[in-house]
């Protein structure tokens, strides 16, 4: 005894108020697979699979109507809609590669694109996923337009105008073939737009677009396609289809009349004789070169068959062992089949099927090999070019982050420029007379001070909380140590008034470097003890605001935090006192005066920091810390180096040894 199970499938056989041979090929592939399974002695023995084909007319409401009719009254009288009503939105198809398309766009370096999608579930859902993935990939979208196959021509012209006027040179088309062709027809009227096209799997492999010269501007389009396959025996099966095999099948008659442009009713049309040969026909129905979707239909049928086979085998084994009563195939539920489908993996003569993995590959559309290989260089599509040296990015208001202006570097970046100036003029008197080695070290450490303010930005974590305070403490000690070393050099140099004095040999370059290292090691030891005993940690502040939770860094050991600040203050105070004592020493360029002023600003900033830090609630604490770091760094940078850069760049006649010595008769080198 053979049982009968039914497989139901929906196709859009009348997508544009006319019969679609391509969709009919999909339906016949279903029947081809079912006949193979029914003729197999290994798969589902004793069970025959049947089918019901429902025409969705590529119209979502009609597809839903047919589905409801199937569930409530699965008879054939409710399975087909009126072909004349086939005019609007397509049934929901499988969406392939929407997030992968974003990675493809990113791979080619395109961060400024336009997107057009079908105004239906396929296009809207696919584009929503693409936009989200693009955001994560750093790709910006200049415009997003949606179209439908029933839109008036004015709508299509408006979209064409947007595409042509936009600055994005890459356009992502998440469209079905039914929406794409009307849009490309309008695009072709004005010639090649010179754009790079990125396509979804619905149209990227369509041979119709390749063979039509009017769509030549689509050559070079890239996208992800469903893998192609070869189905042995399908071509012969399709060619044997004939309306006389099933006289009551209106779809077969409609198909025959469409492809041969005849009519079985006669009248004004050519009379269909039935002797016409499908083997001599060349159209989408007989085309065996693109079996991407038919292969998926074929695979889906076999997946259901294998899932049902495995399920029935398990039920039979349970029955034989007495674990359950006698079963019939009709007792199998749809959830049971779906659960088994997810675990199906089999190899047939046609292809390897693993439903857990849906493989796709990059497809490049071309007319012939010559046009494909015209250029191996990917076109550029960016909103703003990379900023040249000496400028930085400034995001344009109201535009995506990919759009920015290149503006001159701000003050926080000027330490790099100062270093370049000093490096170029390193052999001039003003640089040598003010201890060039410590000057370069100070510039480098000031750069680190500016950068350490970045550690205070972002969500606090265990590592960032420890890094921000220790980096701040150590980099500032490095800066103050260099300034202190320069101050000591000035004092010793001007106190060595006797010609035979050799006091400078006791604080030469090696001793200066050692002093910087020694002062810094003390701060490092303080930081190590702090991190060992009670390090800073992320903390959820729920006390400052009742309606908000503020993520911030708790300093851990308050003693450790204030010890770090206190040591910096001690060095700054010592430096200020020494520089103040040396401010009136004779010289046309006495650096001690500028060090005194810089230390005055430094101390003023951190003295005002203390009450502001203690009284600032929540997130404002971080703002106060960043402000203190930047303000004190700016003070050191400008007060010490701005006068030197002024003479080097604008008063080069004063950059001489004679002018540096002024009225001083002693030729002192330091």
TrEMBL record:
<feature type="transmembrane region" description="Helical">
    <location>
        <begin position="594"/>
        <end position="614"/>
    </location>
</feature>
<dbReference type="InterPro" id="IPR001828">
    <property type="entry name" value="ANF_lig-bd_rcpt"/>
</dbReference>
<feature type="transmembrane region" description="Helical">
    <location>
        <begin position="438"/>
        <end position="458"/>
    </location>
</feature>
<dbReference type="InterPro" id="IPR028082">
    <property type="entry name" value="Peripla_BP_I"/>
</dbReference>
<dbReference type="InterPro" id="IPR011500">
    <property type="entry name" value="GPCR_3_9-Cys_dom"/>
</dbReference>
<feature type="transmembrane region" description="Helical">
    <location>
        <begin position="555"/>
        <end position="582"/>
    </location>
</feature>
<dbReference type="InterPro" id="IPR000337">
    <property type="entry name" value="GPCR_3"/>
</dbReference>
<keyword id="KW-0297">G-protein coupled receptor</keyword>
<feature type="signal peptide">
    <location>
        <begin position="1"/>
        <end position="19"/>
    </location>
</feature>
<dbReference type="Pfam" id="PF01094">
    <property type="entry name" value="ANF_receptor"/>
</dbReference>
<keyword id="KW-1003">Cell membrane</keyword>
<protein>
    <recommendedName>
        <fullName>G-protein coupled receptors family 3 profile domain-containing protein</fullName>
    </recommendedName>
</protein>
<keyword id="KW-0472">Membrane</keyword>
<feature type="transmembrane region" description="Helical">
    <location>
        <begin position="514"/>
        <end position="534"/>
    </location>
</feature>
<feature type="domain" description="G-protein coupled receptors family 3 profile">
    <location>
        <begin position="414"/>
        <end position="664"/>
    </location>
</feature>
<dbReference type="InterPro" id="IPR000068">
    <property type="entry name" value="GPCR_3_Ca_sens_rcpt-rel"/>
</dbReference>
<dbReference type="InterPro" id="IPR038550">
    <property type="entry name" value="GPCR_3_9-Cys_sf"/>
</dbReference>
<feature type="transmembrane region" description="Helical">
    <location>
        <begin position="626"/>
        <end position="650"/>
    </location>
</feature>
<dbReference type="Pfam" id="PF07562">
    <property type="entry name" value="NCD3G"/>
</dbReference>
<dbReference type="InterPro" id="IPR004073">
    <property type="entry name" value="GPCR_3_vmron_rcpt_2"/>
</dbReference>
<dbReference type="InterPro" id="IPR017978">
    <property type="entry name" value="GPCR_3_C"/>
</dbReference>
<dbReference type="GO" id="GO:0004930">
    <property type="term" value="F:G protein-coupled receptor activity"/>
</dbReference>
<keyword id="KW-1133">Transmembrane helix</keyword>
<dbReference type="InterPro" id="IPR017979">
    <property type="entry name" value="GPCR_3_CS"/>
</dbReference>
<dbReference type="Pfam" id="PF00003">
    <property type="entry name" value="7tm_3"/>
</dbReference>
<feature type="transmembrane region" description="Helical">
    <location>
        <begin position="470"/>
        <end position="494"/>
    </location>
</feature>
<keyword id="KW-0732">Signal</keyword>
<keyword id="KW-0812">Transmembrane</keyword>
<dbReference type="GO" id="GO:0005886">
    <property type="term" value="C:plasma membrane"/>
</dbReference>
<keyword id="KW-0807">Transducer</keyword>
<keyword id="KW-0675">Receptor</keyword>
<keyword id="KW-0325">Glycoprotein</keyword>
């Amino acid at each position: 005894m053979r049982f009968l199970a039914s497989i139901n499938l929906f196709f859009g056989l009348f997508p544009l108020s006319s019969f679609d041979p391509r969709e009919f090929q999909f339906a016949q592939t279903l029947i081809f697979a079912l006949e193979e399974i029914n003729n197999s002695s290994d798969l589902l023995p004793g069970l025959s699979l049947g089918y019901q084909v429902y025409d969705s007319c590529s119209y979502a409401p009609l597809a839903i109507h047919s589905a409801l009719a199937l569930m409530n009254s699965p008879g054939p009288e409710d399975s087909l809609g009126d072909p004349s009503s086939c005019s609007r939105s397509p049934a929901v198809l499988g969406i392939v590669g929407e997030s992968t398309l974003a990675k493809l766009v990113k791979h080619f370096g395109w961060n400024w694109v336009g997107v057009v999608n079908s105004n239906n579930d396929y296009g809207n859902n696919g584009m929503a996923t693409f936009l989200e993935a693009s955001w994560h990939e750093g790709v910006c979208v200049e415009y997003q337009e949606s179209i439908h196959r029933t839109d008036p021509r004015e709508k299509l012209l408006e979209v064409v105008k947007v595409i042509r006027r936009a600055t994005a040179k890459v356009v992502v088309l998440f469209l079905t073939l039914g929406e794409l062709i009307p849009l490309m027809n309008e695009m072709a009227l004005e010639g090649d737009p010179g754009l790079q096209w990125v396509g979804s799997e619905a149209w990227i492999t369509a041979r119709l677009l390749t063979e039509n010269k009017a769509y030549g501007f689509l050559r070079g389009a890239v996208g992800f396609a469903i893998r192609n396959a070869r189905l042995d025996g399908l071509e012969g099966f399709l060619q044997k289809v004939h309306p006389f095999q099933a006289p009551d099948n209106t779809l077969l008659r409609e198909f025959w009349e469409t492809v041969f442009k005849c009519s079985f009713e006669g009248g004004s049309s050519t009379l269909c004789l039935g002797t016409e040969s499908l083997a001599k026909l060349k159209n989408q129905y007989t085309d065996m070169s693109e079996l991407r979707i038919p292969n998926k239909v074929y695979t889906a049928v076999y997946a259901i068959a294998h899932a049902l086979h495995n399920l029935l085998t398990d039920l039979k084994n349970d029955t034989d062992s007495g674990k359950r009563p006698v079963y019939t195939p009709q007792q199998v539920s749809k959830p049971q089949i779906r659960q088994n489908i997810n675990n199906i993996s089999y190899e047939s003569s046609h292809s390897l099927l693993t439903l857990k993995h849906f493989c796709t590959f990059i497809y490049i559309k071309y007319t012939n090999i010559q046009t494909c290989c015209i250029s191996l260089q990917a076109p550029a599509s960016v909103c703003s070019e990379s900023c040249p040296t000496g400028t930085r990015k400034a995001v344009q208001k109201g535009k995506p982050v990919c759009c920015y202006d290149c503006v001159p570097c701000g003050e926080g970046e000027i330490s790099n420029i100062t270093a370049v100036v000093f490096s170029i003029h390193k052999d001039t008197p003003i640089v040598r007379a003010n201890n060039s080695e410590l000057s370069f070290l100070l510039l480098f450490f000031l750069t680190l001070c500016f950068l350490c303010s970045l550690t205070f930005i972002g969500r606090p974590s265990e590592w960032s909380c420890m890094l921000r305070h220790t980096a701040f403490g150590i980099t500032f000690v490095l800066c103050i140590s260099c300034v202190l070393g320069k101050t000591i050099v000035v004092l010793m140099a001007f106190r060595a008034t006797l010609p035979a004095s050799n006091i400078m040999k006791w604080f030469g370059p090696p001793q200066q470097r050692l002093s910087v290292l020694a002062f810094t090691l003390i701060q490092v030891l303080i930081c190590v003890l702090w991190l060992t005993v009670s390090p800073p940690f992320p903390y959820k502040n729920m006390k400052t605001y009742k309606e908000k939770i503020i993520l911030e860094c708790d300093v851990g050991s308050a003693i450790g935090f204030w010890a770090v600040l206190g040591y910096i203050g001690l060095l700054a105070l010592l430096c200020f006192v020494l520089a103040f004592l040396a401010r009136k020493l004779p010289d046309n360029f006495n650096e001690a005066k500028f060090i005194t002023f810089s230390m005055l600003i430094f101390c003023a900033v951190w003295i005002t920091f203390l009450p502001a830090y203690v009284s600032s609630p929540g997130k404002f604490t971080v703002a106060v810390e960043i402000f203190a770091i930047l303000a004190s760094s700016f003070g050191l940078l400008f007060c010490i180096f701005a006068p030197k850069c002024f003479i080097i760049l604008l008063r080069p006649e004063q950059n001489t040894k004679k002018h540096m010595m002024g009225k001083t008769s002693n030729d002192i080198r330091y």
